[in-house]
Write a structure and sequence with these properties.
46% of the residues lie in helices and 13% in strands. With 493 residues, the protein is an alpha+beta fold. The chain is globular and about 85 Å long.
Length: 493
C-alpha cells in the first residue's frame, strides 16, 4: 500500500509541476499581447486573401474499396503464401487454414509512396470498431496493385527465423477501388488550411541535424563554446544546491538562479571583451560551428543580438526527446513559435504552434502517462480570430495528390484540442455533419468518426458527453451495415 501511495504521489507531482509547460503572459496566453496584436493583422489579411481564392477547388479522395483481412503465423504461413500464389479462392483458403485470423468487411484505402527508391503500395483497412486499422504494405514497382484487383489477394510475407515465426498478412479484395470528388464545402476547408499554413515553408531547415553530444567536450578558445566558458568563468555564480523542504519550490529556485545569472551576464555584456568574443562566436555559429550548451548560446543571441538570428540557429537543429518525460522538443518548438511570432514571421509561427498542438515530435520512447501534461494551446489560435474549427478540421481530411508539405493534424491531439474550444456547438455540428454526409467518401467520414470519439472522451461535461453519444449513434446509421457492424461510441467499450 505504501509503495502504491508513493507512486501516486510522484505521478501527481509530475502533473502539478508540468501543469504549465510554458511561461504565460498577463493575457493568459503563451504569446504577449503585443505579439498577438501583430499576428491578428496577418490573420485578417489571410482571411481576406482566402475569400478571393479559387472558390471551386478540386480535391479527390484517395482510392477506396473493400476487403477481408487475414493474419497467420507459423508453419501454416509458409503453406498459405504458396496457396495464395497458386490462386486459391477465399472459401478454400478458410477451409485449409482454419488457424488464420479473419476480419471481414473492412473499408480498404490504397495509397502509394516512395521509400529508398522503392515504390510502395499501402492498403489500410478500417471500420467503426475498436481495432482502428490494419495495414498491408507491398513493393509495387510495376504498378500491379493499382490495377483492378477485385477477387484477388494482396499479401506481405515475412520469413521466420530463430527469434520469430513466419508471418503472413493478406487482404482479399471484395469491392474494387474507386476515387470520388470531395464535396465543395469540405474542399474549401482543406483549401483554408493551405491558405493559412503555406506549403512552401518548413519549421526546420532541410539540413537540420540532431543535436546530441556524448560526454563533456573541452571548449576551444576561439569557438562558441569558448565564449560560453568565458561567460561562465566571468560571472562567478555562488555555489548553491537546491534543498528540498523549504517554502521555495524547485521551479521558483530555478527562476531565482536564472534571474541572478542574467543580472550578472547583463553587467558583463557591457564590456568590450564580451562584445568582441560574442560577435566572433556568433559569426562562427551562423557558419555552422558546433555548440555543446546550444540552448544557453541561443538565449544569449536572442538577448544581445536579435530574435532573428536566435530563430535561425534554432531552425538548424532537430531536437529528439530521450524519453516520455523529456519535453525538450516541445520547449524547442515553443521557442521557435515565440521568436517567429515576435519577428512576425507568420509562416514559421503557425507551423511551429500547430506542431505543439499536434505533438509532432520525435522521441526515442513515449509512454501514455506523459501525454496528459502536454497542452494543446487552442486558446492562442482562437485569440487570433481564425476560423479555428475550419482550420483544425481541415487538417484531418485526406485527399489524393496531396500538396507537398500540406499540414496534416493528429486525430487524437486535434480531438483533445477541440474539446477545449470556446465554440463547442459549432465544432460538434461540423464534425457530425461530416460523419453523416453520404456525399463524402467513407474514409474521411471514418476519420471524423474517430476524431469525434477523441473529442467526446476528452470533454469534462458528462452531460454533454451523453448527448453527443446519442447524436453519434444516430449518425452511425448512415454508414453501410457491414462497415458499422460492432461500432463503438466510446473508447471505453
Amino acid at each position: 500500500m505504501k509503495k502504491n501511495t508513493i507512486i501516486l504521489f510522484l505521478f501527481l507531482f509530475v502533473l502539478k509541476t508540468r501543469a504549465q509547460e510554458f511561461r504565460q503572459y498577463a493575457n493568459g496566453l503563451i504569446y504577449s499581447e503585443t505579439t498577438v496584436g501583430q499576428l491578428k493583422h496577418i490573420v485578417d489579411s489571410l482571411n481576406l486573401k482566402f475569400k478571393v481564392c479559387n472558390d471551386h477547388p478540386d480535391y479527390t479522395a484517395v482510392d477506396q474499396g473493400k476487403a477481408h483481412y487475414l493474419d497467420l503465423f507459423g508453419p501454416d504461413a509458409v503453406r498459405a503464401k504458396d496457396a495464395i500464389e497458386a490462386g486459391i479462392n477465399l472459401e478454400d483458403f478458410v477451409q485449409q487454414f482454419p488457424r488464420a485470423e479473419i476480419k471481414r468487411d473492412y473499408l480498404a484505402v490504397r495509397t502509394q509512396s516512395m521509400d529508398e527508391g522503392k515504390v510502395l503500395t499501402e492498403f489500410r483497412l478500417m471500420k467503426l470498431d475498436n481495432h482502428y486499422e490494419y495495414t498491408v504494405t507491398v513493393t509495387d514497382s510495376g504498378g500491379k496493385y493499382l490495377k483492378p484487383v477485385v477477387g484477388q489477394w494482396v499479401f506481405a510475407y515475412r520469413e521466420g527465423d530463430d527469434n520469430s515465426l513466419a508471418h503472413l498478412e493478406a487482404l482479399y479484395v471484395t469491392a474494387d477501388f474507386t476515387a470520388q470528388a470531395i464535396p465543395l464545402e469540405y474542399a474549401r476547408m482543406i483549401q483554408y488550411v493551405d491558405c493559412m499554413v503555406d506549403t512552401n515553408y518548413r519549421v526546420l531547415r532541410d539540413n537540420a541535424a540532431e543535436h546530441y553530444i556524448w560526454g563533456p567536450r573541452v571548449p576551444e578558445k576561439n569557438s562558441p563554446d569558448g565564449f560560453l566558458a568565458f561567460v561562465n568563468g566571468s560571472i562567478r555564480m555562488p555555489e548553491e544546491d537546491y534543498k528540498d523542504g523549504g517554502a521555495e519550490t524547485y521551479s521558483r529556485y530555478r527562476e531565482r538562479r536564472d534571474s541572478l545569472r542574467w543580472i550578472k551576464i547583463d553587467s558583463l555584456s557591457a564590456r568590450p571583451l564580451f562584445k568582441a568574443k560574442f560577435r566572433h562566436a556568433l559569426d562562427l555559429a551562423l557558419k555552422g560551428a558546433g555548440i555543446v550548451d546550444v540552448d544557453m548560446f541561443e538565449d544569449i543571441v536572442e538577448r544581445y543580438d536579435s530574435p532573428a538570428n536566435a530563430l535561425e540557429l534554432k531552425r538548424r537543429r532537430l531536437v529528439v526527446g530521450g524519453c516520455s518525460q523529456d519535453e525538450s522538443p516541445r520547449i524547442h518548438a515553443q521557442a521557435i513559435a515565440r521568436l517567429s511570432a515576435e519577428a512576425v514571421n507568420w509562416d514559421i509561427f503557425l507551423r511551429a504552434h500547430l506542431d505543439i498542438m499536434n505533438d509532432h515530435f520525435d522521441r526515442r520512447s513515449d509512454a501514455s502517462y506523459a501525454w496528459v501534461g502536454r497542452k494543446t494551446y487552442i486558446r492562442e489560435l482562437e485569440a487570433l480570430d481564425f476560423d479555428v474549427p475550419v482550420l483544425l478540421l481541415g487538417t484531418i481530411f485526406h485527399y489524393a495528390a496531396e500538396a507537398g508539405n500540406h499540414y496534416r493534424g493528429s486525430i487524437s491531439r486535434i480531438g483533445r484540442a477541440l474539446s477545449e474550444t470556446g465554440t463547442p456547438e459549432i465544432t460538434e455540428n461540423k464534425m457530425l455533419q461530416v460523419i453523416r454526409d453520404s456525399r463524402l467518401d467513407l474514409y474521411n467520414r471514418l476519420l471524423f468518426y474517430y476524431l469525434f470519439l477523441h473529442y467526446n472522451d476528452n470533454l469534462e461535461d458528462k452531460g454533454r458527453q451523453t448527448a453527443n453519444t446519442r447524436q453519434l449513434e444516430a449518425a452511425l446509421a448512415t454508414f453501410p451495415e457491414d462497415i458499422r457492424r460492432n461500432a463503438i461510441t466510446s473508447f471505453d467499450q
